[in-house]
Amino acid sequence: MEYVTLANGVKMPILGYGVYQVTKEECERCVLDALKVGYRHIDTAQSYFNEEEVGSAIEKSGVPRDEIYLTTKVWIEHYGYEQAKASVEESLRKLRTEYLDLVLLHQPFSDAYGAWKALEELYDEGKIRAIGISNFYADRMVDFAAFNRIKPMVNQMETHIFNQQKNLKEWADKYDIRLEAWAPFGEGRGGTFDNPVISQIGEKYGKTAAQVMLRWNIQRGVVVIPKSTHIERMEENFAVFDFVLSDEDMTAIAALDKNESSFFSHQDPSMVEWFVNMVEERKKQQGCAKEKKNW
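and the corresponding structure tokens:
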């Protein structure tokens, strides 16, 4: 395993296992499989609704807690100082752990500043070893780094061969913020797995397209958290430390950048409204659930 060192000196595995869109029914088994393969970096979030299953798997795995780098993320409806702090305490309970290795603010909306103050305080208390952000574009990231007591140590963003985040990485490097890639395969959109440049490079090293894409980000110093529910794919994604892409390969992949999201833009006002409506809908659902419980 290779590691990156965060601004506060904490070492973070450069390859992890992500559980986004892994169902509650499958999550425990998948995390156990990932730990069996050798992963020691697990990435979850409050909005994935599988923190309890992740915690159960870690507890059952027999792997010492201090050997696992565990990340979760605070969701928008829990932003603001008091709510964010309470939500992290709840995440600690669900994940069956006394501390978290990394907590991120999941989206760049709502009272992110209030939520950040809660993370700073929990960091000071030793309940979180590192704090960061997710989906913050370069301008918001620099804003956060400049106007908070503690700078974000990580920024987790959509980062893959068609959206390489070159500008964001330059600014992240300037502020000593580690870039972490969600959707490192772009979920296959636009033909990432079938791209001829990636395929030809893979043939040269006897590696799959997925392995080439992960290795490319790793050599850029970008943390990657691929997700799969199949242990064979987990093993494939883990086998990326026995080859090195040449400068020529890295240049060829760099030329594939389209500099646009394969999903959506957080800077699109209609997308911001979509997030607002989702939060409001969840609040209504939670309110209905509480009413039924009190009947």
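(Above: one complete record from the training split.) The chain has two domains: 3-263, 264-295.
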